[in-house]
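From the pipeline queue, job 12 of 40. The input is one protein chain; the requested action is below.

Action: predict structure.
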Amino acid sequence: MTLNKVSAVPPAAQTASPCLCTTVRRADRTLNRLYDEALQPSGLLTTQYALLSTLARAGEPMLHSALADAQLMSPATLSRNLKPLQRDGLVRIAPGRDRRTRYVELTGAGQEALARARPLWRAIQAQVRETAGSARIELLLSELQGLVADLRRHEMELADAS
């Protein structure tokens, strides 16, 4: 796999957009393609790897809502992303104390899938860092994490005001 693929997109369509959302989405799609291709031998997609990794770091079953919050995704989107993982036996979804709560748990098979995918993820991480430069990646991560925190705070302030 290489990061230097030639694009068939006309130069006019490749121009920088002044829209933050468009630019971040382009970066997201580009990175997702690279990571999905790198993870392909493991059978996992980038989104699935991220979910399994979050569950592994938690070290215990997580509330569905807490996992959605941790991934900054809606509960409905999380449910759609969990379906193939549950079907393949990589996660188990169990009812909580009442009808409204569910727990998501990483299974042994999920831990094994994550262990198979981790070296592939590390390799693409290293390749992206090498291509873009470690200092640039560290700055980008710091800036994006700060931006997410600021925007989440703003969302909460708006919700509190209404």
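Job complete. Residues 91 and 129 are 30 Å apart (CA to CA).
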